[in-house]
Amino acid sequence: MSIVIFGAGGLGREVLATLQLTGHNVIAFVVEPGYAAQPIRGVPVFDNIEPWLAREDVSFVIAVGDCKARARIASKLHTRHFPTLVHPAVAKGHHVEIGKGAIFLGPASMTTDVQIGEHALINPGCVISHDCKIGAFANLGPGVCLAGGVTVEEGADLGVGAVVAPRCTIGAGAIVGAGAVVIRDVDPGATVVGVPARPIVRRAASAAAS
């Protein structure tokens, strides 16, 4: 089955390279209306998805880094087939479940009893230890390290090089800043930064509290 990549930025090029390494036939990129561009690595770029939706022989990969945008696009294409994409350089242990549309770029590793949700994005250099659960549409930036038993809920976004201690939960829609070290649970929708990671306190809220 031929593949169309939704998104033609840096992530789109990474996805193209991975698909080609794994022997897939990529026939087009699709971008938002008005953003058509020159071909990328010989693959044409279109700004109209409708002709591709009319074809039953096409699968889609959503190469969009923003969690919410990826979820929005997936909801529009929910009836279509989404292959699971795992780079050949990913070290994959036993009893690993990866949901449809998930993208796992390499090199990276996951050990045993790991669950990766639909349309999750795992970037190069990530280490996912035993018994971790990654929710749908979550992002793990390059070099993220998850110790054993970590849960990353739906749509959470972990920045470059973030580290999460054993059995911590990153709540749905939370943001963990680059280089942060999480040693306790992060509430849904919260933004945490630093070592150890602490919630960002907005100035207005801080002034009101004082």
From TrEMBL:
Entry's Gene Ontology molecular function annotations: acyltransferase activity
Site (Increases basicity of active site His): 131
Nucleotide-binding keyword on record: no
SUPFAM superfamilies: Trimeric LpxA-like enzymes
Residues where substrate binds: 65
Keyword Isomerase found: no
Family: Belongs to the transferase hexapeptide repeat family.
Name listed for the protein in its UniProt record: Sugar O-acyltransferase, sialic acid O-acetyltransferase NeuD family
